Amino acid sequence: MKFPTPFSLKQIADIISAKYVGPDDFKVLGMNEIHVVEQGDIVFVDHPKYYDKALQCNASVVLINKEVSCPEGKALLISDDPFRDFNVLTHFFKPFEKADTLVANSAKIGTNTIIQPNVFIGNNVIIGDNCVIHSNTAIYDNSIIGNNVIIHAGCALGGDAFYYKNRPEGFDKLLSGGRVVIEDHVEIGTLCSIDKGVTGDTTIKEGTKLDNQIQVGHDTVIGKKCLIASQTGIAGCVVIEDEVTIWGQVGIISGITIGKKAVIMAQSGVGKSLEGGKSYLGSPAIEAREMIRQMAYAKEVPDLIRKYNKK
User: Fold this and answer.
1) Which of 270, 271, 189 lies closest to 230 in space, CA to CA?
2) Mean pLDDT, to the nearest integer, of 7-33?
3) N or C: which end of the chain has fewer CB within 10 A?
4) pLDDT in tens, 89-124
5) 188, 206 in Cβ contact below 8 A?
6) In 10 A of CB 145, how many CB atoms?
């Protein structure tokens, strides 16, 4: 998430009432999670396990809960609770905007696009040409939809990330300030939920088709010409490369990559990154040929037991 204008390190520190290490006028351009940070961004870290990773990543400013040596060319914000203060910054730069109409006045809708009754389109949404948005769909603020896109009834684009910190008093939510971006010629079936990024974009690229009742988590990127069948659940920060086929009721854990042209068969559970160009089956998902072989062996077990007991 980039700021509307550059801010100084001192200005950011004043917003969250934090100490800082670095020049007052050190330029800050935005804020992002560690997997998408760029030079000029703030990243937060609140666990010793990830200190080194955060300090060495592309971020220019590290919001951290320990006084450490500042890497050359970077700056630090010292906070007793980086999670809380990251939320303060998100709220400051991307506050919630109340809607007063079903279609926001700031929304931009292209030529020949059809918006069916009872569709909600939020603030600053951009929808391209020749799209069809079916009834009872909600498109949250700042979403971007390309040309020739079809979104079927009952979808929700831009819901908050499912991202919480477990505190003694309960779960503390990480605020979402990102977007949903849908490229050209995408079709989304009924009752799909696509969460926006925490600070970046959840993206579905050109030509991909989603069946009904699919969940896409925050900051996930789905490549071009993918086919994803009904009741698939994709967690946050997943990268699905081009031309991947995912059949029904597949579950995919967060933070992994599915390689180009992979095929994941129905009811598989994906718990690690998978190479492209292969078919996978099972939970945990392994190459389909190996899983089918194991299943065949398993069918022989009762006969082997009977033969053994007759001896």
Assistant:
1) 189
2) 97
3) C
4) 999 999 999 999 999 999 999 999 999 999 999 999
5) no
6) 26
The token pair that represents 16 in the structure block: 């969250």
Annotate the chain with three-state secondary structure.
CEEEEEEEHHHHHHHHCCEEECCCCCEEEEECCHHHCCCCEEEEECCHHHHHHHHHCCCCEEEECCCCCCCCCCEEEECCCHHHHHHHHHHHHCCCCCCCCCECCCCEECCCCEECCCCEECCCCEECCCCEECCCCEECCCCEECCCCEECCCCEEEECCCCEEEECCEEEECCCCCEEEECCCCEECCCCEEECCCCCEEEECCCCEECCCCEECCCCEECCCCEECCCCEECCCCEECCCCEECCCCEECCCCEECCCCEECCCCEECCCECCCCEEECCCCEEHHHHHHHHHHHHHHHHHHHHHHHC
The burial of 76, by beta-carbon neighbours within 10 Å (0-12 exposed, 13-18 middle, 19 or more buried), is given as: buried
22/299: higher pLDDT:
22
Reported as a single tens digit per residue, the pLDDT across 128-169 is: 999 999 999 999 999 999 999 999 999 999 999 999 999 999
What is the end-to-end Cα distance of the chain in Å, rounded?
Answer: 70
Closest C-alpha to 188, from 219, 228, 142: 228
Packing angle of the helix pair 82-93, 9-16 (nearest 10 deg) = 110
Place of tokens 């997997």: 35
With 0.70 as the threshold, say if the pTM is over it: yes
Give yes or no: 91 in active site. no
145 vs 131: CA distance, rounded Å: 9
Q: What is the pLDDT of residues 56-80, one digit of tens each?
A: 999 999 999 999 999 999 999 999 9
The full set of domains in the chain, from first to last, is 2-93 (3.40.1390.10), 108-289 (2.160.10.10)
